[in-house]
Amino acid sequence: MAIRLPAGLLRILLRLTVKPFLGFPFPVSFQRLWVRIMSNTNAPSRAASMERADISGMSTLRARPKGSEPKRTVLYLHGGGYCIGSWGTYRGLITHLAVVADATVYAPNYRLAPEHPHPAALDDGVAAYRWLLEQGVSSDRIALAGDSAGGGLALATAIAIRNAELPAPASIALFSPWVDLRGDTPSMTANARIDPMVKPSWSRSCASMYLNGRDPEDSACSPLFASHEGLPPILVQVGSDEIILDDSIRLADRCREAGVDVTLQKFDGYWHEFQIHAGILEAADQALTKTATFLTTHWEKGDSPLFERVNPLKKGTVPFLGEDAV
Q: Which end of the chain is more exposed for a tag (fewer CB within 10 A), N or C?
């Protein structure tokens, strides 16, 4: 039986054990180690199997429900401000998502700043998607997902896929996406004290290392400012208490203006990427259930085999799963 923790207790623990250690005076190397240690409190789902894979030279976690060979696939890009984090840090979220969505989840360790600033992470995201296509996975059975910086990266990857005229994924699920690296939104100030996870100063430091001198309004780095026309359906989940709340709200608005099917789910009283506590926090489980419903809706649209889509990366054709309205 899963042990549940009250949201208030988790909030206190995060404020004491995570937030103070992100940013000055701690170097990035220590932050990476500390977050990896603290992530052990977010245990993997016992209903999931895990194995390591290699995607285009990237160490990758492949998670799926035990005893199952799902035909659905999620390419998951982890958070961490583009500077810290790995699939090891996010095993809990990744495995719980695999189980609730009945999907195979691939989570690659893309390259991190400051050693590898933009565009390394974006290049890796696109390379991972191309790898899935090369394995014969139908694009309409692939969803992109990510949290925080990984959410921004998932969106930027989807935009790069569209611009490269590759087959589009079925949908995109974003948890607390960081899509504006300028760091000057009202929520960055208004929620600085109540967000128990992230400090504005750390966010700005990570942005500086990732940008490496680039304009923070560069749409490949801050996909809020990109053209969103033609993107697949998008789910955005965000907590009311996080410093980048405005990123999600503005992203949803801009996507609607561009004609994109976007769903914004705001969780009152919760913090940045609270979904990482799946299995111990009831709200996190509820959020992932909503995510699974969204993903399944768009995977199942194409059950009719009336169409085929040519995969330019693999000889022959792969099933086209349909574009019916919701």
A: N
